[in-house]
Design goal:
Length: 408
């Protein structure tokens, strides 16, 4: 048996038995980008928690399984540093984004964001998702209560705790259940939220390229009639590698295109880096959005894509999820250090109130932007271009958008 004392000397009922029942403060279900990040934050402050994920660490960092890249805002990078998980892996592999150019295909108008207008720091960083996962896994690797290749086989709420039965035979009694299993979160059903969703009938195609000209740490987003095309700088000795996220109608068959055909289509859409060469597998992801009317219930909160999902047009989904995890971690740590219940209704409600102020406007704005840029009407084309020109010429407005993108 292990027993924990809180820093104030309160003897907590945080008893972990070596055999079957684990009595703990927090149960995190889902150890992905957001659940794993929460685990790293709790571990840093020695808050006892259990993390459960059916995935294996090997698959989580397999470059072939998920080739997505994540644009991490400067604000999120600072959260990673605070949790001590930026070094050494992300420091080595995350490529700074110094400039972002947004334009409509064929238009001369664009909005150009340059980090120097706001700060000497980059606007953000890009790295393959596997490096974020590796950093998180490295941080949690010695924690014997992070159970991978393990799932929940039962869950039940009681007044003072949540009881979970795991596929490895362990039983967990936790004060707080955190649902972090992504968009299809099964434990979300326990709080029965209303889901407002939209299917965009689009998929995001992801592939990595090498190109003739260096990217100079620029990220580009080009709106085309079929959907947005984003090209994002990746770490490479000569700065000649990028990742693309290209949104196309769901029925688009890019699997049937040869590399030559796809490369020439990319060069036509994006003629700025010279010849391009595909250097990865191709991945595709269906696109939809949803928001919920609640993200907390009795002894339970939702974080990350379990709580909200959006189109990758603005590269904000997981950045929003990391802010969920950060706010939640702060509240859990405060309660724990003050000898208070980390699963209290007061904590869950306060988390929900605070996060909804960030989640709701961002999910709505991203949905609106997605629809605005999917409309082929000539009038909207004109309005969008006038908007780009206007934002580009009004420094306070430009700085406002930069701050949003940088998560500041
Ligand atoms: C093409 C594309 C590009 C994107 N680019 C960006 C970007 O640049 N910037 C950005 O901010 N966001 C981006 N996003 C969004 C981002 O990928 C998601 O917001 C992020 O993956 C959400 O992380 P998560 O941990 O909440 O969920 P997930 O990443 O889905 O992780 C969920 C975890 O839960 C586990 N799990 C699943 N089921 C169970 C279960 N039953 N029990 C226990 N565990 C379970 C899974 O194994 C996984 O480890 C992009 C999305 C797409 C599709």
């Amino acid at each position: 048996m292990w027993e924990f004392e809180s820093p104030r000397g309160h003897h907590r009922k945080v008893v972990m038995s070596a055999d079957k029942i684990i009595k703990i403060e927090v149960l995190i279900v889902g150890g992905g980008l957001v659940g794993g990040f929460l685990g790293a934050q709790l571990q840093q402050k020695k808050i006892p928690f259990v993390l459960v994920d059916p995935g294996s660490p090997e698959n989580m960092i397999d470059a072939v399984k998920d080739g997505r890249t994540t644009a991490v805002s400067l604000g999120s990078k600072r959260l990673f540093e605070k949790a001590n998980i930026w070094n050494p892996c992300l420091k080595e592999y995350a490529e700074p984004i110094n400039n972002i150019r947004v334009l409509e295909k064929g238009s001369v108008w664009s909005v150009d964001f340059d980090h120097k207008e706001l700060s000497s720091d980059p606007m953000g960083y890009i790295a393959e998702n596997m490096y974020f996962r590796k950093s998180i896994l490295d941080c949690l690797k010695d924690n014997s209560h992070c159970f991978y290749e393990t799932s929940l086989t039962g869950i039940k709420k009681h007044d003072g705790y949540v009881e979970a039965i795991l596929s490895n035979g362990k039983v967990v009694h936790a004060k707080l259940l955190v649902s972090a299993e992504g968009r299809k979160s099964p434990t979300r059903d326990l709080i029965a939220p209303q889901i407002m969703s939209r299917n965009y009938a689009q998929k995001a195609l992801v592939v990595h390229l090498e190109h003739e000209e260096p990217h100079n740490n620029h990220a580009w987003e080009i709106f085309t009639v079929e959907g947005p095309f984003a090209i994002l700088p990746l770490r490479h000795l000569e700065g000649k590698k990028s990742g693309i996220v290209w949104c196309k109608p769901s029925n688009h068959q890019w699997e049937t295109q040869t590399d030559d055909e796809l490369q020439s289509e990319i060069e036509k859409t994006f003629p700025y880096y010279g010849k391009v060469k595909i250097v990865s597998k191709r991945w595709s992801f269906p696109l939809s959005t949803f928001e919920l009317n609640k993200i907390s219930g009795h002894r339970q909160v939702l974080i990350g894509d379990a709580a909200h999902a959006m189109h990758p047009i603005a590269g904000q989904g997981v950045n929003l999820g990391w802010r969920d995890a950060d706010v939640l971690a702060t509240k859990i740590i405060t309660n724990y250090e003050n000898g208070l219940d980390v699963g209290s209704d007061m904590l869950c409600k306060a988390y929900e109130r605070e996060r909804m102020r960030d989640i709701k406007p961002l999910v709505k704005a991203t949905d609106l932007m997605t629809q605005l840029f999917s409309d082929e009407s000539k009038i909207l084309y004109g309005i969008r271009n006038a908007g780009f020109a206007f934002v580009n010429r009004v420094p306070p407005l430009k700085r406002f958008f930069m701050k949003q993108a940088m998560g500041l």
